[in-house]
Amino acid sequence: MRRSIRKKCVSLALMMSMVITLLTACGGDAGTQQIYYMDVAGNSLKISAYKLKAKDTEGQISELLTALKQAPDTGSAVSVMPRDLEVISHRLDGGHLVLDFNTAYERITGPNEVLMRSAIVKTLLQISNISSVTFTVQGKALTNADGSEIGAMNADTFMDFGGDAEDAMVRRTFTLYYASKDGQSLVREKREIYYNSNISPEKLVMEYLMTSPHTDDAISPIPDSTKLLNINVNRGVCYLNLDENFLNATDKISQQVVIYSIVNSLCELNEISSVQIAINGEMNSIFRGDKLSNSYTPNFNMVTSNAE
Fold first, then answer.
1. Fewer beta carbons under 10 A from the terminal one: N or C of the chain?
2. Boundaries of each GerMN domain copy (predicted)?
3. CA dihedral 159, 197, 171, 19 (to 10 degrees)
C-alpha cells in the first residue's frame, strides 16, 4: 500500500530575483552554486553560495546532497534535511534523477516537507545534466494526500515569489491553453503547480502562459518580451494589463488564438467569467487591426487537442 503523506504545497518556479549559474557536468571549473536552506523560523527558503569541487555529474550529485545536510555558516538558516533523513540511493537516467529516501521521510509533513522538497529539487537542478527529479521512499512513489503520485519535479513545479509560506501552501491543477504549432488552434494542457497562496491564481496563469508548454505540439502565443503590468478580478471580470510588447505576437499565430489562449485559460478559474485586455492601461489598443475593447468570454471551439 502506498503511503499518503499530507502535502500542503509551496513555492516555486523560478526565483525571479536571483540568477542561478548552471553547473558544468564534466571538465572545467564547476563554479559557485546556490544551496537552498530553510530560515530558522521554518517559513521560507534562503540561499548560500557554495563552491562545487566535483567535476563529474555523479560526484556533483553526491556533493550537493552532502552540502544540503550541513547547516550554513550564516546562522540565519538551517539545513532543510533532518539528521535522520538519508538518501539511500540515487539514479540518473537521461536527465531524470530519482532519489530514494529512508523511512524518516514519512515523519516530515506539512510546510516543512514541501520546503525541503523544493530546496532539494532547486539545488540539484543546477546540475546541467539534470532536468527533473523524482522522490521515492524505500522504493515507493511519493504521494499527495489524495494518493496521487507527485512524480517528476522540474523548474516549473514550484512557483516562489518570496514571503512566508507556513500557512499558505497550495497545490492546484490549472488548465492552460497554448497555441498549436501551426498557430491556428488551441492545445489544452493541465498543469499541477505548487505555489504560495499570496500569489493570485490569475497572475500565476499568465506567468505560465508566457513560458513554454510541456507538450511538444504547442507553443506559447505570447511574446517572451511581454510584461504583465497588472491583473485583478472584480465581479467575475478579469482586468488584464500588458505592456506594448504583447502587440508584437508573431503573425504565424492567429489573432484569435492569441486572445483566446489568454481568455480560455483565465476563465478556467471559477472566479472569472470574462476578460478585458488593456495595453499600457489603454482599453482601445489596436491588435491585428481590431480594438481590444471587448469583454471576451471563452471560446472552446478552437481547442483541437489535449495534453494531460
1. N
2. 61-146, 202-288
3. 10
HSE-up of residue 162 (Cα within 13 Å, Cβ side): 5
* Cα distance between residue 82 and residue 107, in whole Å: 10
Residue 67 near residue 119 (C-beta atoms within 8 A): no
Cell numbers that stand for 224 in this block: 517572451
**Distance from C-alpha of 14 to C-alpha of 20, rounded to nearest angstrom:** 10
What percent of the residues of the chain are helix, what percent strand, and what percent coil, each to the nearest 5? 20, 35, 45
Task: Give the phi and the psi of residue 51 in degrees, each rounded to 5.
Answer: -90, 110
Q: Find, among 172, 188, 170, the residue nearest to 180 by Cα.
A: 188
Phi then psi for residue 275, to 5 deg, are -135, 135
Confirm if 100 and 88 have CB atoms less than 8 A apart: yes
Helical ranges in the chain per DSSP H: 57-69, 110-124, 201-209, 255-267
- pTM for the model stands at 0.59
Exposure of 39 in the CB half-sphere (CA atoms within 13 A) = 11
